Structures are given as structure tokens and as C-alpha cells.
Amino acid sequence: MVVGKREDPYSAFRFLVEIEGIIAGGFTDVSGLSVQTEVDSIREGGVNDFEYKLPRGTKYTDITLKRGLTDWELYNWYKDVIHGKISRKSGAIYLLDHEGNQVMDWYFFEAYPVKWEVSSFNATSNTVASETLVLTHHGVV
User: Fold this and answer.
1) pTM score, two decimals?
2) Helix or strand or coil: residue 95?
3) Is residue 1 one of the residues assigned to a domain?
4) Does 10 map to a domain?
5) Domains in the chain: how many in total?
6) What span, in angstroms and rounded, lies between the C-alpha atoms of 10 and 12?
7) For every one of its 141 residues, what pLDDT tens digit does the chain have, with 9 covering 90 and above?
8) What is the C-alpha separation between 24 and 94, in angstroms, rounded?
9) Which of 15, 86, 126, 129 is deepest in the core (most CB within 10 A)?
10) What's the pLDDT score for residue 25?
11) DSSP string for 26-74
């Protein structure tokens, strides 16, 4: 490490979302990048101060994408799911540094929407109408 060089953490507001090779810009929130491995605890007979922790399986949390409501593209993808036509799509989430360079990435596989929601409308507010899409998938790397 160079003396005097400061390593700041990356900002959480600089990111891109890509689905099937197309940058799907305009998302304001991405959440659900979570992986957890479940374990079984096994105690050996007669040994009271030790237990084995064995991996049982890994599960992935659904990914939630939120953006300003601009078109029907995401809803149409979900509408196909409602009618039994599952169209799985893979994609990526890219974290960018302050100069806009890609510094980290997470890839999700064979995702499809399981929930679509529009923000509430309020005539006394000046907030932007937004849509939220929840994707289930086969893993994140």
C-alpha cells in the first residue's frame, strides 16, 4: 500500500443494471444481492463441547429493482408470467467508481419476475411514479 493513499469505499448510487445484454438504465434501487449457506449442526455422542457444522445448501434472495415508471416493458414481462409464459433472462449489476469505471459486478442467471408494483399516487405530492420488479433467479456470482 502506498503511504498517504486513501482508499474510499465505493458509492452505492453509481450502478448499472443489464438484462440480456441490454443496459436497462434508470433504476434507482437494487436490493437483494444476498447469498446464504445453511448448515446442519451435528453433535458427537459423549462430546459436549464441540459440534460439527456441515453445509446443507445455499439459497439466493430475490432481487428487487426499482425505477421511475416510463414504459410497460417490465410489466409486459411480468404479464407473460401471469399467463404461464415464463421467459427467463440473465443479467448483471455493475458497480461504478466516481469516474464511471466498472469496479465490481454481480451476475444473476435465468431470472423471471414474481412481483410487479407501482408506487401509490398522491395528488398532494410531487414525487415521481415508480415501479418495482422482484426477480427470482438461479443464483448470483
Assistant:
1) 0.84
2) strand
3) no
4) no
5) 1
6) 6
7) 567 777 788 888 889 999 998 877 678 999 999 999 999 999 988 888 899 999 999 999 999 999 998 889 899 999 999 999 999 999 999 999 888 899 999 999 999 999 999 999 999 999 899 999 999 999 999
8) 11
9) 15
10) 67
11) -EEEEE---EEEEEEEEEPTT--S-EEEEEEEEEEPPEEEEEE---SHH
Q: How far apart are CA 74 and CA 129, in angstroms?
A: 14
Residue 67 maps to a domain: yes
| Cβ count near 106 (within 10 Å) | 16
Domain that holds residue 78: 15-136
CATH of the domain at 108: 2.30.110.20
* Rounded Cα–Cα distance for residues 125 and 103 (Å): 37
Q: How far apart are CA 68 and CA 1, in angstroms?
A: 42
Which residue type does 33 have? L
